[in-house]
Amino acid sequence: MLKFDEKGLIPAIIQDYYTKQVLTLAYMNEESLETSIRERKTCFFSRSRQKLWRKGETSGNRQHIASIYADCDGDALIVEVIKDGPACHTGEESCFYEPLYLSQEITPFSYDGLYKLIEGRKINMREGSYTSYLFDKGMDKILKKIGEESSEVIIAAAKENIDETIYEIADLSYHLMVLMVQMGISTKDITGELAKRHVIDKKIKQETMK
After folding, report:
1. Under the phi-then-psi rule, with left for phi > 0, alpha for psi from -120 to 50, and beta for the rest, what region is 120?
2. Does 128 lie in the same domain as 53?
3. 63-70/10-16 β-pairing
4. Together in a domain, 58 and 124
5. pLDDT of 204 higher than 50
6. Could you tell me the strand order of the sheet in which 10-16 lies?
7. For the segment 76-134, what is each residue's pLDDT rounded down to a tens digit?
8. Judging by beta carbons within 10 Å of its beta carbon (0-12, 13-18, 19+), is residue 55 exposed, middle or buried?
């Protein structure tokens, strides 16, 4: 049972289905929630305008709903979406882009963060940077390194050395990401392709169980 506040609203945390990045915090009432579920696109209640508004109705940046979860108390929602464009009206991917505090001890890793770092090394070549060196040498060098790293993964795995295999897989992953930047392939492109395969595998499994 959902619990709406005294104004008939419930907070909805909008999250990217693929990356799990928090995109925005909005509010829904019963009508906008029902509309969201029926249309499978986010529809919110605007507290400033006091009316329903469908995300992307003017910008085109619609959010297609993958799932909606309520918290343990039933007074907040998480809505996972596949978005057509930036979530924020400023053009940022997420409304949460202004850091107030960043720990100096904890530096979380993300593939998107690594991708942006590698992309930066291509756009602004830095002397002494190995990544910039690879881009400077071009595709042949990048492909050669991928071949070398792939072989090293195979050798490490053949020895059943877990630590060494992890190390070599990390090297290969980095060089693959360099290739992605070189070719203009984003992490979202790869995630989307894997997601399509996941859906296909799920359908195959369901059919074999009939």
Report:
1. alpha
2. no
3. unpaired
4. no
5. no
6. 22-28, 10-16, 77-83, 63-70
7. 999 999 999 889 989 888 999 887 877 767 667 788 888 988 999 999 898 899 999 99
8. buried
